[in-house]
Amino acid sequence: MGQITLNQVRKSFGEVDVIPGIDLSVEDGEFVVFVGPSGCGKSTLLRLIAGLEDTSGGVIAIDGMDATDLPPAKRRLAMVFQSYALYPHMSVRKNIAFPLKMAGMDPAEQERRVSHAAKILNLGDYLDRRPGQLSGGQRQRVAIGRAIVREPAAFLFDEPLSNLDAALRVSMRQEISELHQTLKTTMIYVTHDQVEAMTMADKIVVLNAGRIEQVGSPMELYRSPANLFVAGFIGSPKMNLIDGAEAAKHGATTIGIRPEHIDIGGEGPWEGVVGLSEHLGSDTFLKVNAGALGTLTVRASGEVMMHHGDSIRMSPQPGKILRFGADGKAMA
Amino acid sequence: MARKASNTSKAVVTIAAWSIGFLIFFPILWIIILGFKSEADAIKTPLQVLFSDWTLRSYHDVQERSNYGRHFWNSVILSVGSTVIALAIAIPAAWSMAFVPGRRTKDLLMWMLSTKMMPAVGVLVPMYLLFRDFGLLDSRIGLVGVLTLINLPIVVWMLYTYFKEIPGEILEAARMDGASLKSEILYVLTPMAVPGIASTMLLNIILAWNEAFWTLQLTTSQAAPLTQFIASYSSPEGLFYAKLSAASTMAIAPILILGWFSQKQLVRGLTFGAVK
Description:
The complex is a heterodimer of chains A (332) and B (276). Chain A is of the alpha+beta class and 332 residues long. Chain A has helices at 42-50, 92-102, 107-120, 136-148, 166-183, 194-200, 218-223, 228-233, 245-249; strands at 4-13, 16-26, 31-35, 57-62, 65-66, 77-80, 154-158, 186-191, 203-208, 211-216, 240-243, 254-257, 262-264, 270-279, 283-289, 295-301, 311-316, 322-324. In chain A, the strands form four sheets. Chain A has a six-stranded mixed beta sheet, with helices on both faces. The longest helix of chain A is centred in the middle third of the chain and has 18 residues, at 166-183. Chain B is an all-alpha fold and 276 residues long. Chain B is 76% helix and 0% strand. Chain B has 14 helices and no strands. Classes of the chains: A alpha+beta (332), B mainly alpha (276). At the A-B interface, strand 6 and helix 2 of A face helix 9 and helix 10 of B.
């Protein structure tokens, strides 16, 4: 079991309210991603759940039991840190076995669990090495191994991939997703990278300034962001946000349209001049200077031969325009 | 041409470095040389000294006149004793300042260091009177106490900077893994801090071994360490260069050997944190 409920959880450091009050429910077996810009409180929230920080108010319940004042070790949660936080003086084997040793587990059972974890994570050949002799990806696997052996109620990941290079990040992302499929244990994952959030999560929690902006599945957030913040944060490249007369035509203060929802050519109602074009091979992203509409990002499939200074016409796909009111909230 | 110029400058720098090194080492070298000369030869001009006969006479005289063993033993007790006590106080202190700092921790550290800025002679009279009244003059217990206190700020500072280098996330990981405070200290912190504690210990032993103000002021014979042993050969009645040199060589030899074998550890300890 690994059901976690937050009820009006608050955290302040001195005068500063980092988290003014959060309600959230994480279901058993769910992969939940906390995403948001730097300083939005996502890591603090994770540390509150872990018990590494004391709450300033509210209740954290794990499987229905109040865990607010329990020490970290008693919460049956395992955490993987950004810096891996391996014990440098211990071999990989001892690192992974450490939580079992602390729990006073029988050595034979310790050994069995360590080899099981090593098998899952392909660490068999490295068990007698020290962390200093491993690559970044291998270290991260050891850190995950140390979390797995405890068979915790839930895993907490604090930006675990941000120290890895781009290629390794993609493969570790898949490994963690597969691990979730295999173990079916609740995972809470903190990242500032919305691509990680979109690709891994069952449920994304978008945080901003210590508040939850929206909770939903990746596609829910993509299709119907609750407000301008989520609209701008989820999706890559960013959604185009247009104010002024064009928005007023749709009865809104701001309208949003994703780069992939603008068609080029024909007799489109919008016109502009191509500025930059970014060729990714499968896609081409054009930065189009569209006068009063501002600079729009437009996605074209495949290789599109557009050059700086070309004039183009564009049309938004019907039904894909999102409308936002003066308060920044989405309009029905 | 560029290459040639850099070779020349390299040569200049190398020669300069060796010259400075030699200059710094020269007094010690000269003491060692003088120790193996007769009193008559020791006061001649340097060239004459170098080419005069070598003898163990001074070492023989020093052995006869004073009790090297007792002074040596006192030095060991004073330096090791004061270091052990200082570490016992400083480890928990540095520990809590590094891992659970309060608002005044920085001020506290500065205050501790500031006590080292006061000239020792400024408190000589009150210290002497205290020692006299408590019957601690010429006692090892009193001197261990003084040496502990004068070196404590440096020990705390060194350990503090060392502990600061241990990433907090590792301790948090241990906490998540179910380690109690005791296990956290025993299995995670101490093994990681051992090199730092070791180099602090070594440096403090050297500092205490060489301390020559309080050891000279507060002892006469019973508790007198090797500094007193050297000083006893520079009496106002007339200098005996050869014997003084022999005594000095005997006094610095143990700590020089200790320093030599632990220099890697020492350099690591002293430069720790300078480069990440």
